[in-house]
Each structure stands twice: as structure tokens, then as C-alpha cells.
Specification:
The protein contains 9 helices and 7 strands, in the order βαβαβαβααβαβαααβ. It has helices at 18-29, 41-52, 69-83, 106-116, 118-134, 155-175, 193-206, 210-219, 229-240, and strands spanning 9-12, 33-38, 59-63, 88-91, 137-142, 180-187, 251-254.
Length: 263
């Protein structure tokens, strides 16, 4: 199936591994031109080399710490100078410290916002002008099912991602007349390095094996398992495509049925 994104320029952040890497890979398979970024120069370079498959795919990379405003500006400058525009912006960020509210101090809150919210605002603002000029664009925010169903020790992530959820809905209305579609993807438990880190912390805090935590979470999911990065990437690629041309302002759960609410 032709999804209509061949030669579109895609920027996927936090993409040296995990969800970001899988999304970049899925976009490349649709013959999009892809820019990727992460904090570590060596990691993102290796990811670009792997994704390009010896030059088969067009991959541009830039090391950028999303928690630093100057890095975000440089990233957008480099991508826009290289490609001239961003057609599909996939805002993916790392996760913050895991804690409950009473265990969270001011620096924790600030670091969470610096990492997860402020760079999303910067990147979106920089990408919109060309999308408006071209009368075509896709903005996809990677949030989490935690915005609908908060979990233990996830207060920073829930708070920051909920703000992005509100931004997504607002922008979908503001930009619709320019044919810029804005949606959020809410992944459920997906077995990535981040999930391994979270389960390890919960394991240590509760004094039980990691496998116990993993099994408890899996039991909450009707499909009985964690999702894969590739399954999340498939959903992102669909929302980025021409096949999703009447979908904007939506919040797509990709969670194996974990969230039990009807809407």
C-alpha cells in the first residue's frame, strides 16, 4: 500500500534506539527522507549508518540534547538548511525521573519540563511556517497512556505529557485550515530500554524480581503482552500518511487494550 509519504521530510527525535529508531525505520521503508537526533554523537551516528543500509536510504543526523534550548535551535537550523522543510514532525522525547509527587523537588519538575515539554514547543514552532506555506503537514506527539491512566511513580511524565496532549488538541484546531494534521500517539507498555529501566526501578523499590513487575503489567493488557517498538511505529506511520487525511485532534492508544475506558 502506498501511504503517500514518499520524499516527504520527516524529523524524528530521540531516535538512536527504541521507539524513535523504529519510527525512523518505518518512515524510510515508505521512501521518506528522514532526519534523526539524540544526545550522543556516536549513538546517533551509528543509528544513521544502520538506518541508511549502506546508502539505500536518505538519513540525516544531528546530535542534540533536547533539554538545551540552544541544541534544539541548532537541530532545527541544520534540518531546515539541509532539507528546506519538515513535512512530518514526530516529537519523541526521553522519560524523566520516576517518582511520586511528595518525592519530587523543584529541580525534578524543571528537568522534566526542559526535557519533555519545552523542546516540543520549540520544534513545533519552527516546523509550522513551511507546512503552512506548503498547505501540508503532519505533527505527531508521542505521549503515553499515562495521560489517561497515571501509574505509580509517574507524576512528572504524566504532568508533562498531559500538557502536550492539550497542545495537540489546540493545534489541531488552529492549523486545520492549512491542512496540517496534529495528533498524539499514546503508547502503552512497550518493551524498550525505557521500560526495562522503569521495571528495574520498581523492582528495586518493592524488593521483588523484575519479572514479577513485568508479569503484573502484562496481566493488565488484554493481549497479555508488552507491545513492540515496530507496532508503535506502524501507528505513527499511518497517522503521517495520506490514508489518515481526515484524522486530526485525535489521541490514538496503542496499548493492547490496557486502557479500559470507552473513549
Amino acid at each position: 500500500m502506498d501511504l503517500g509519504i514518499k520524499d516527504k521530510v520527516v524529523l524524528v527525535t530521540a531516535s538512536s534506539k527504541g521507539l524513535g529508531y523504529a519510527i525512523a525505520q518505518a518512515m524510510l521503508e515508505e521512501r521518506a527522507r528522514v532526519a534523526i537526533s539524540s544526545r550522543n554523537e556516536e549513538s546517533i551516528k551509528r543509528a544513521a549508518e544502520s538506518l541508511s543500509q549502506n546508502g539505500k536510504y536518505d538519513v540525516f543526523y544531528e546530535a542534540a540534547d533536547l533539554a538545551k534550548a540552544e541544541d534544539v535551535e541548532r537541530l532545527m537550523d541544520r534540518v531546515l538548511n539541509h532539507f528546506g522543510q519538515v513535512d512530518i514532525l514526530v516529537c519523541n522525547t526521553g522519560g524523566p525521573k520516576t517518582s511520586n509527587f511528595t518525592d519530587t523537588n523543584y529541580e525534578d519538575w524543571k528537568n522534566g519540563l526542559d526535557m519533555m515539554l519545552l523542546p516540543v514547543l520549540q520544534m513545533t514552532q519552527r516546523a509550522i511556517p513551511k507546512m503552512r506555506e506548503n498547505k501540508w503537514g503532519r505533527i505527531i506527539f508521542m505521549t503515553s497512556t499515562w495521560v489517561k491512566q497515571p501509574r505509580e511513580k509517574g507524576v512528572i511524565s504524566t504532568m508533562a505529557r498531559s500538557a502536550i496532549s492539550g497542545l495537540s488538541k489546540h493545534l489541531s484546531n488552529e492549523l486545520a485550515s492549512d491542512n496540517i494534521l496534529v495528533n498524539q500517539i499514546m503508547p502503552g507498555p512497550t518493551w524498550t530500554d525505557r521500560s526495562r529501566e522503569i521495571t528495574a526501578r520498581l523492582s528495586e523499590a518493592r524488593g521483588v524480581p523484575v519479572e514479577v513487575i513485568k508479569e503484573e503489567i502484562a496481566k493488565e493488557i488484554p493481549l497479555g503482552r508488552y507491545g513492540t517498538a515496530e507496532e508503535i511505529a506502524n501507528a505513527v506511520t499511518f497517522l503521517a500518511s495520506d490514508k489518515a487525511s481526515f484524522i486530526t485532534g485525535s489521541s490514538l492508544q496503542v496499548d493492547g487494550g490496557q486502557i479500559k475506558s470507552t473513549v
